[in-house]
Structure formats: C-alpha cells, structure tokens
Fold this sequence. Notes:
Layout: H1 2-13, H2 16-30, E1 39-42, E2 45-48, H3 59-70, H4 72-88, H5 91-97, H6 102-135, H7 141-144, H8 149-172, H9 175-199, H10 202-209, H11 213-219, H12 229-237, H13 250-273
Amino acid sequence: MLRLLTIEYHKLKHSRTSKVLIIGYFILLSAIALLASIKFNIFGAEFRLADQGIFNFPYIWHFNTFMAAILKFFLAVVIVSMTANEYSNRTLKQNLIDGLSKKEFILSKFVTVIVFSAISTIFIFILNLILGFSFSDFNEASIVFTGLEFLFGFFLKLVAFFSFCLFLGILIKRSAFALGFLLFWWIFEWIIWLGTAYVSTKEIAWQVWDFLPLGSMWNLINEPFTRLEIVQTAATQLQTEMVMDYGVEWYEIAIVCVWIFIFIYSSFALLKKRDL
C-alpha cells in the first residue's frame, strides 16, 4: 500500500498544476477563518458573522464542513488530471510494463483519494477546534465533541466525489472533457429532479434525488443556515415553523458507500477491458 502511495506522490510532486491547486485548496479552507472578521451592513445595521454563532460548538462542525465541501472542486481537478494524464503522458502503460497490475493501478488512485479526503478532514478538524475555542460561547467537552458525525460525513462525501472524478478520468481520458462531463452530470441530475417533480410531486422528486450520485453526496451534510439563531428568530416572528433533520443518517451513508463501490469497480472494469 505504501509503495502505491509513493508512486502517486512522485507523480504529483512533479506536477506544478497539481501542487498549485492543492496549496490553493488548503489556503481557501483556511480562509473560512476570515468569516470571523467580516462585517456585513444590512439595512443600516452592522453585524459580524462570528457574533451570530457560526463558530459556536457544536454548530461549527456542521457549518464549516458544509462550507469546506463546496471547495472540493479544486481537488477534483487534481484527481481528474492525475488520472487522465496517465493516458496522455503514457505513464499508465509504462507502469504496467514495469510490473504494476491494473488492479494495483486503480488501488493506488483510490488510496490517493482516501489520503486527500483524510488530510482535508483532519485539517478541518484542527481549524474547527481553533475557531471554536476562539469564538464559541460553549467550551465544555460534552458540547465541543458533539456533532463530530459531520466530520465523518465530510470525509465520506470527499471520498465519493473524488471516486466519481477518478471514474470520469478513466472513462473519458481527457481532463477538460471529464470536468465538462461532471458539470453536465450535475445539470442532468437537476433535470431528473425537475422532470420527476413535473410528472409527480416534489416529495417523490427529492426521494429520487436521494439515490442519484451527486444528490446522495449532497444529502450527507444538509445546509446549516436555517439552524442559525437569527434565522430561527425570524421564522418565529413570522410564525413559520422550520423543522429539519440535520443529522448524518445511516441510510445516506449506505447509499454513498454503494456509489463509491460502483465508481471504483467500474473504473477497474473499464481499465481491465481496454487494450493499452
């Protein structure tokens, strides 16, 4: 396993684009901390986001993992590129000649996906602790470590998304086209939702959405904004009931795990069939 990871490390080490994207990704993750100092002016009233409780424990685990997951597209470019470049640079064929099996090749990519996801999760964990202890009104251990399931949801979300990118890189073999297809697929899932809602109901449309690749990944971490105290207060004043299930559910985890298996197995099946 270490040998496979070492091979991928040396490939990324000599890719300037990948290094820039990876560094940029972690800089942007760190930029979440800047939200603490941003002041907004709404209807003449100034307020700072940190004062609205976004960095309070345990809410911070939900908010920051949701925001950080949006930035995953930076690493998606790295995953797609490092896979597609195997064909354009002919390193895949050379690896196979040197004794690397097709199964080991896919495994090396998947291990890289897991490492990227794990490092991102650890980074967010540390960042949340720093921000939480700096701004949170609640620092009791029982509160601080409540809501860690969002970290697991974040990790699984990244593994699934990067596995999808890995599959597209092998399927299409061109970085730009693979990323273009990723955008197309995102639009396609929304078309499915709209079509289902049109012929049936929105409730059924959301149920269908729950089983789609990107839809199921999105569901792992629901939007956190309606949990904000200012939003809840406004809803109460408007006599609007806002009841949502924000947790990371076991069936959502199961659906995403199935898609991860499908993506990795399909990647191996494609590579196995091709004459390189």
